[in-house]
Model the fold of this input.
Amino acid sequence: MPHLKRVAAGKGDLTDPKQKVTEAEAIERAKQGDEGAFETLYQLHKRRVYSLCLRMVSNPSQAEDLAQEAFLQLFRKIGTFRGESAFSTWLHRMTVNVVLMQLRRKALPSVSLEETLDTEEESSRKEFGADDLKLTGSIDRMQLTRAIDHLPPGYKTIFVLHDIEGFEHNEIAEMMGCSIGNSKSQLHKARLKLRDSLRSMRAEKARKTG
Amino acid sequence: MTCSDVQQVLPDIVDGDAEFQSHLDSCPACSALVADLRLIAAGAQELAEAEQPPARVWVNIANQLRAEGIIHDPGPVSVRPALLPSRPRRSIVWWLAPVAAAVLAAVSYQVAHKQQPFQTKVAVQPATQQPAQSVTASQTPQSTPAELASPATKHPQQLAQDRTPSSSKTARPADSKVEENRVAAEVSPPASAEDQRFLTEVSERTPGMRSTYENQLRAVNGEIRDTLEFVRRHPGDIDARQHLLEVYQQKAMLYQMALDRIQ
Done:
């Protein structure tokens, strides 16, 4: 599963069989109303859920509310979880839905169609940069976070869902109500914008320290 | 193969398509672009679980689940076994379980061994002030204890309201005052210093839970106070004594939950 491989990178390592057993036990106990079981499930997934919310809305307070709502919606329905899919997948999808609902409620474009209509000339100019401004080595995490925060909403959503959260384009298309081609195009443009932003940040930093 | 050709399929190349590798090997510009975009995608993966939510998020979730009845309180515990340690406890919190056990044992003894036989109906307010749950009791002077409101429906707030003895129809034993004093002396809630120590321990061990426990402690102490007051005034009231026991059980459970969490 594409999502599980990403989760393995963090604290909630659900590729670990021992932790899978713990999660399965917690789910069964949570169905009985056991508070400790709910907390176990929360602790296993809190970082993933909160990080997703924060990346999408770039506001810690809103991200807290959204993470809270995602867990509450999940826990209210835990009695219906039958284990056909991974629990993390279920939670992940629910979190995305909660965030997208919020974005739509606020009339923020989760996918901006205008952004898909760049002219071919503009696309060409953007895609080939000078060697002396290419990114080298590793990317500064703070700079990348800042650059993502400044992406237009539509680009940000697709980038977060694909590159950070690990959803495939067909899944994104289904969630966003767009085509697979549109998802790929938005992602590509998002990466190009990020590249421009990061190069600018590095150039600015070089000017200040130079 | 030209740079324009690569541009058309750049997203696929970045995501791993090796079809155009020969062009990338010979074109520094395209190669640098692809390398940059792959670097960005790789950097993004590190952000998946980068952020930690504050502790209040779980507190809010738990409170809401409790309010909706999705989290079930533990069932009634038997007096001794639930409070005896089943595994070695840290010495620093040794005093929590005995405090709760002592309180519960004292109240249980009172309820089980010292209660007076129930003679008449439950004391009720005058009709104008009477809550709905007590109507049946006041209108059936011959009601037996079984027909009266159970402790579950006799909310402590209702008990707290039933404080005026003027319309009481309970036949008090001659030594009711003595009985009241004995009950008060033997079932007084634990000293508040113990509650403060309890909260201090919670703050040190699980700071995010302090406000939750503080609120719950305040609520249960308030119920104890109100119920105790009613029992003092109506020592023959079996339902009230039973309710007092249950409220003390709730406080013992609160301590037990903290113990479980602290360990």
